[in-house]
Amino acid sequence: MAVVAKPQSKNKRVAEFLASPRKMLINGQWVASASGKTFAAINPATGEELVQVAEGDKADIDKAVAAARKAFDSGPWRKMRPNERTKLLWKLSELVLANADALAEIESLDNGKPFTIARAVDVAGTAEQFQYMAGWATKIDGRTMTLSTPGTFGYTLREPVGVCGQIIPWNFPLMMAAWKLAPALAAGNCVILKPAEQTPLSALMLGELIMEAGFPAGVVNIVPGYGETAGAALSGHKDVNKVAFTGSTEVGKIIMKAASGNLKKVTLELGGKAPNVVFSDADLGAATAGAAMAIFFNQGQVCCAGSRLYVEKKSFDTVVGGLCDAAKNMKIAPGMDPTCQIGPLVSDEQLTRVAGFVERGKKAGATALVGGEPVGGGGYFYKPTVLTNVKHDMEVVRDEIFGPVVVASPFDDLDELARQANDTPYGLSAGIWTSDIKKAHSLAGKLQAGTVWINCYNVFDPHLPFGGYKESGLGREMGPEVMEHYTQVKAVVVGGM
Ligand code: NAI
Ligand code: MG
Fold first, then answer.
1. Which among 244, 270, 296 is the end of a domain?
2. What pLDDT sits at residue 8?
3. Does residue 3 carry a pLDDT above 80?
4. Is 128 tagged catalytic?
């Protein structure tokens, strides 16, 4: 593997951030890990170390939980008026935008994604999330009821859940932090956030902005570390009231078990194997471009990626041919290259994983029309790949690959198509391309998925709930729906009236 010189950033904030080991945020202070241990943040474009990061484990999680507990039970946060929380969240969104270049560069260096995308999607989406949720802080309310027992009157209070553990993945490190932090804080909770070990940096830079915005000490604690140590300690902690997780379905199940010790509230956003369905009556140009974006965006490392493409038989060659052209023409480069369209995968491990899936798929009879192999040389780059001649029971059709790899199959019967599309333990998202509105809405109703996109793909909005059917998750992020998961209801009954 080629080792190149450490990137010298022209951005002052980035240069300073990478100049010394990064600490963790506990009780408003930047501290080393209790063990003194650190781990390396790696640049996936080169395999080179970016900076050392404090490695949290159980002892650090204990400290962070104690700080969050204290902030929730007796700190100024609990007494703060809702519009003060609004102002803090809005201030944070402004700081995110003021530091957009630095955040995007850190995200690109640590995750591999194109800087231009990090700036336009991840950073912009982060700011929007804090802005939308800033509005929610002043809109949480209860109900009043006339009760049937004479002389009584009832009302409900919607209160924060308390101390929340939030465990996030490496594919959208900053945006996943925002999706989790924003609603929790809007509702008045305190948080311990554990970023993924592959991508701890942007959450730590966000932590600096959280402190700059003026959130009280202990309200947000950020503890980087590994899943089996820090993550397990957080999801099993007796003093944590809720755990929210995004990542693999496998770890989601482990977290649910760990949370059962004290019956924490659990929300999970897990894997997917989304069907993306193109009918012959669709605008085939738009559908082809949409199918490419649906799978290649973020190097395919997207839980809702359109990884199973179903094209009506008579248009199969046209659409798949166009998709292959798109795949061949994508510029593969380090994320900081302004022409980059496909960056490296996040890690050596992910590259091996993706390559393994495709190798086994080819052995099972699939054909790689384009791609089908790593780029080679330095960095964890994998070629955008289109697999055909696939059968429904093949591993590449059934399992989440989480790389730039799509399996394409023809269909000619709508009922059979719907059956195949739903024949998966996953149910996160789906896409439909057609100009026939009857067909579109009929299929949207049949697909078992938390999100269905019609004539578009990967459209997100803080006002839209996002989450999975079946083994793709539990609960919803964003939208009014997420507020249900960060609040709990108290019924108050007044007698003697
Ligand atoms: P993962 O599920 O192991 O990691 C996600 C987060 O969970 C990280 O912060 C990790 O430290 C934490 N974690 C891991 N084990 C834990 C445990 N026992 N207790 C508590 N926290 C734990 O995902 P991984 O291994 O990085 O990727 C494997 C596959 O998972 C990918 O190939 C992809 O298929 C899927 N994945 C799905 C994501 C999604 O957005 N739904 C995101 C990342 C991965
Ligand atoms: Mg893992």
1. 270
2. 79
3. no
4. no
